[in-house]
Design a protein that fits this description.
Elements (H helix, E strand, L loop, with lengths): L1 H22 L13 E2 H7 L3 E5 L4 E6 L2 E6 L4 E3 L4 E3 L5 E3 L2 E4 L3 H13 L12 E6 L16 H18 L3 E4 L9 H10 L4 E8 L9 E5 L5 H4 L2 H11 L9 H33 L4 E6 L3 H4 L5 E8 L3 H8 L1 H19 L4
Parallel strand pairs: 9-10, 9-11, 11-14, 12-13
Antiparallel strand pairs: 1-8, 2-3, 3-4, 4-5, 5-6, 7-8, 12-14
Helix pairs in contact: 4-11, 5-7, 8-11
């Protein structure tokens, strides 16, 4: 009997605590925690305007001409010129958008700095770069009259580019660093796994008309529906999405991320190919054959801004002679690295 009375007393005590606790709960929406912040609050503090498309689940931020797009449900943010990954996904709580603690430094601060570039600020568009030395191993690529192989020339140039870019503070990864064969498929997968910002494929040209010469750049044309759903692109999307915080099987979110990445890549690649071509050709004193569109495999199936450069024609005796020289290869590497670095920093 005593045990029953004790249990009854405990039950009454617990119930009274629970009821009194519930009575003190506010009916207002939960306030921001120290680790997360309401988007409306952080924007108000920083004078950043924002608009939320609740159908597409995309928030557009604007500050004095600078723009960023935040995908609710993902940790991905596109800042016009670069892709930013947050520490956690932006999410909603009672119809309010909540952002993670690093949103201030990674998004808001960069928006304000980008808007202030004219006052001396420089925000790199790219920080991590994939350098792709064409061909390799069993695939020699183009071969000049004297036997000079494309795979040898471009590997040497790419190693030099890597060294220079690293000295300038960039993170650089090469698809191959020795004379080995790497499939086109594998090259695009390397780019997708690396969470890089830019893909630059380096080649040497050849033509039936041996008088052809000069430097040229390529970016991918706009892709049709079939290309957009190609098997390799889907594989690469899976590899890239694994680096992002996206709810499993969130097909709508993945589709929106895919569209955002595609639009970003197409606009950036076109501009990049034009500017890299113009500046590099001028620096190495070569003919600029212009920026062109091409459906090269590595351009179609990479998801980040991507260009392919042809440093010269091995089929042209004069350019083959130049490409044999280490001093000329160094000149090409230095000029390409400078062009990439200047573009990344917004310098014309």
């Amino acid at each position: 009997m005593a045990n029953k009375k004790l249990l009854s007393a405990l039950f009454i005590l617990m119930a009274s605590v629970f009821i009194s606790g519930c009575a003190t709960v506010s009916k207002q929406p939960p306030v921001s925690t120290k680790r997360e912040t309401y988007l409306k609050d952080i924007c108000a503090r920083n004078n950043v305007s924002w608009q939320w498309d609740q159908v597409a689940q995309v928030v557009t931020l604007k500050y004095r001409g600078a723009k960023a797009k935040v995908l609710v449900g993902s940790d991905l943010v596109l800042m016009g010129e670069e892709r930013v990954t947050l520490s956690a996904p932006a999410r909603t709580v009672q119809s309010a958008v909540i952002v993670p603690p690093d949103f201030q430094s990674k998004v808001i601060l960069r928006l304000r700095q980008e808007a202030s570039q004219k006052k001396g600020y420089a925000i790199p568009k790219f920080r991590s770069i994939i350098i792709d030395a064409g061909h390799g191993g069993k695939d020699p690529g183009a071969i000049g009259r004297t036997g000079l192989q494309e795979k040898v020339v471009v590997l040497d140039i790419c190693k030099r580019i890597k060294k220079i870019l690293q000295q300038r503070g960039f993170k650089v990864k090469m698809t191959r660093e020795s004379d080995k064969f790497v499939s086109l498929k594998a090259r695009t997968e390397i780019a997708s796994r690396a969470a890089a910002d830019l893909f630059v494929s380096v080649h040497a040209n050849a033509a039936r008309v041996r008088s052809a010469y000069g430097f040229e750049t390529f970016s991918a044309p706009d892709l049709g529906f079939v290309d957009r759903i190609a098997t390799q692109r889907k594989i690469n999307e899976g590899l890239m999405f694994s680096n992002l915080s996206i709810k499993k099987n969130a097909l709508n979110v993945e589709r929106i991320v895919s569209d955002m990445l595609y639009e970003h890549k197409q606009s950036e690649s076109k501009l990049l190919a034009k500017q890299i071509g113009q500046k590099t050709a001028k620096l190495i004193k070569a003919k600029n054959r212009g920026a062109k569109k091409a459906r090269f495999y590595v351009l179609r199936n990479t998801l980040i801004p991507a260009i392919l450069v042809e440093v010269g024609f091995l089929s042209n005796s004069k350019e083959e002679k130049l490409l044999k020289k280490k001093t000329y290869r160094q000149k090409i590497a230095r000029s390409l690295a400078r062009s990439i670095s200047d573009y990344a920093k917004g310098t014309r």
